[in-house]
Amino acid sequence: MLAIHLISFYFSKLKEDPTKKVDRFLYAMRLHDDQLNDISARFQAEMKKGLSSDSNAAASVKMLPTHVRSTPDGSEKGQFLALDLGGSKFKVLQVKVREGMGIRRGGVEMEEKTYPIPEELLTGRGTELFDHVAESLNDFLTQKKISLEKKHPLAFTFSFPCEHTALNKGSLIHWSKNYQVRGLRDKDVVQTLREAIDRNGDMDVEVLAMVNDTVATMMTCGFDDQYCEVGLIVGTGTNACYMEELRHIDLVEGDEGRMCINTEWGGFGDDGVLKDYLTEFDRDIDAASINPGKQIFEKMVSGMYLGELVRLVLLKMAKLGLLFDGHVSDVLRTKGAITTAHVAAMEEYKNGLKNTQKILTGLSLMPSPEDCIAVQHVSTIVSFRSSNLVAACLAAILSRIRKNRSFRTMRITVDCGSSKGAALVTAVAQRLAVRRQQVDETLAPFKLTHEQLMLVKSRMRAGLEAGLRNKGPSAVKMLPSFVYRTPDGTERGKYLALDLGGTNFRALLVNFKRGLHQNTRVNHKIYTIPLEIMQGTGEELFDHIAQCVSDFLDYMGMKNAHLPAGFTFSFPCEQTALDTGTLVSWTKGYKATDCEGHDVVEMLKEAIKRRNEFDLDIVAVVNDTVGTMMSCAYEDPQCEIGLIAGTGTNVCYMEEVKNIEKTKNFTENKERDEENKVKDDKNEDDSRDEEITKMCINTEWGGLGDDGSLEDIITPYDAEVNRMSVNPGKQSFEKLTSGMYLGEIVRQVLLDLTSGGLLFRGRVTETLKTTGIFETKYLSQIESDRVALLQVRSILQQLGLKGTCDDSIIVKEVCGAVSRRAAQLCGAGMAAVVDKIRENRRLDHLKITVGVDGALYKLHPHFSRVLEETVRSLAPHCNVTFLPSEEGSGKGAALITAVAKQKPV
Hints:
By secondary structure, this protein is of the alpha/beta class. Helix content is 43%, strand content 18%. The protein is built from 28 helices and 25 strands. A hairpin with a 2-residue loop joins β6 and β7 (169-172). The chain is elongated and about 120 Å long. Residues 230-415, 640-899 form the Hexokinase C-terminal domain. Pathway: Carbohydrate metabolism; hexose metabolism; Carbohydrate degradation; glycolysis; D-glyceraldehyde 3-phosphate and glycerone phosphate from D-glucose: step 1/4. InterPro entries: ATPase_NBD, Hexokinase, Hexokinase_C, Hexokinase_N.
């Protein structure tokens, strides 16, 4: 008996709590966290499909590019007209945007007028609809007395799915919201609007932008909040947009920056992906709609359908006797009898139950208090499911943004709508267009034409010729190296190579094995040159070098060997023989006294003699460019040019001896000596009989332009870098092309752009004003194809430069312009060299290899390609192969020594 009483008590309590029977009946609509996470994951997968060109056609979430590339930054200004078309009425607005000093300091003023759209136009012809729009615009201009003496920019909010090919060009995909206008599908909506404006009065209007209402919503918020990068519409329909990384959008060319994506998420589920979450009421809603099988997600969440969902639930419950004592009125059976406004009224905090009773009475029902509670709970469950579904998909968007930007946490704002958004899109577009023009004008001098590069080529050629003549000073020095031959692969034996060119000194032991290039063995050790040695006395410097050599010979166990040695000395030297070199001037931070004007080989020999521990036969002193050429020539016999493209830049090449006037007497004597030696020893190798016809010339081409010959391509930024350098007026070509200066040129450009308000919101930091802060290595990092803009921003932040995504794009463009010009100028100089060699040899076509060393060529992501493309363009009759040096100039010095010892000249 007790059990029976307990059961009776239980059921009486159920009757007292009508929400529980609703919970049981609508169990499928009450989504728990795991289900919402699952829906969010499914939506993320659909987003990815929509962004891919391979799967977009089949994607239910279309992910339409809008060509809106930036949100407002507060500097927008101007006066705009705006049209807002998306429902039974549309608006015409005049929007005035006042410029501020950053976000929230500007302001927007609006005047607007709403115009009804006659019912017949919703199903009529497209031209009729847009004629009505144009007539209303004309009426607005007349009423507001807006002058047409100047062209007015116009923004168009068009709240229907469109496929954009530009910000002001988009084709209608399909109508929604009860529109069934004929003749516009797949046609350019903006062009249709322009034609209608042209037909309706003398209106001087330029349509600059067409956007979806979701995008307009985001832009409205973006003007007040810099963190707003998502727009959300939840009303009669529903949609969302957000700023996606351009590199992920297959349907748009380019990979720099971001673009707003109109997700058109109302179609989520059209491919059946939400089938297991659809209730019988959702299926009934879809079947009775004008577009069955379409906009499934929208039918689950939007205001157009929530009221009808509630009606269908109440109808079913009443038929089952769970409501109204089983009574079903004719009004309750009528589609549309319950609206979303009714749902909102029933859920009001204070008056909800009172409103519910009134609404149900209006449906010819006689609800009990329990019925009113149950109906109110039905409304809550339906609308709560809607908000949960929207939140799940919004979470997917936010998670994608966070993942794109590699943030652990993220602050972002989501906004929900205003008519001024389209005007702000236009204002942003106008701001970006003005900035784009100013940035282009700034970078224009760096973009050299084919004709300009041909002039540089001809000037380099003239510099080469002048330097070969022994008639006064020349900007291009053309220093003889007294290297007459490149390796032929027969070199063998052990040679010591010493390499001094910067803050390090390198000692190498190179063992050449005859005929086995790949088996050449190189041992080396690197020693630091302390600053106090670099800037002390010459005796201290060369004593330090002798000490390093002594240590290396101990390390190799060859202290007692009398080895032939080559000395790579990467400073300008005048040579009168292979084993003599008089230092012209120090560079690269060296200031050792009593060295300039002295033979560096003799200074090294004296230091070795003072040490009295070992002996060396110093056969050759060579420039690093010559060493690079020789090193590569050992691998490729066609290598007769050496190029350094790194901290500095230089070229050497094999020139015809007859063209080197400054050494003519000397070489004639050498030729006679060679002939006499051959005659005296008949048993020597036949190669001794060959005539000396070539000598490697160290061009020192970095001095091109020191005579003013490059003034027409020198920019103000180059002039400032030159003015601030340690050698103003010297090494003009090198200052345009080498790693020592490119970063500083970029800094000067960035400083100018920032001062002009085009970068970093016009904030010139102390960091940006610091000379040398922007190292050339940053160009290589920033220009890497694998580096996303987020990483560019990170690099800038390391330098104390906090910029936007748009700032990062401009910084990358500046780096690209400066480094591309450098590569092109080197290419023009190289074209002059190879064409000269071709003409020297009277060839129609020259095939030759260039040995290359230097971090700029090897590490910069685009320098080598641009250099090689330029040579091909400017020297079309030369087939030039570029061979990066593996061992560098040190091995080359050993090879020069080997060649000289085996084939003395």
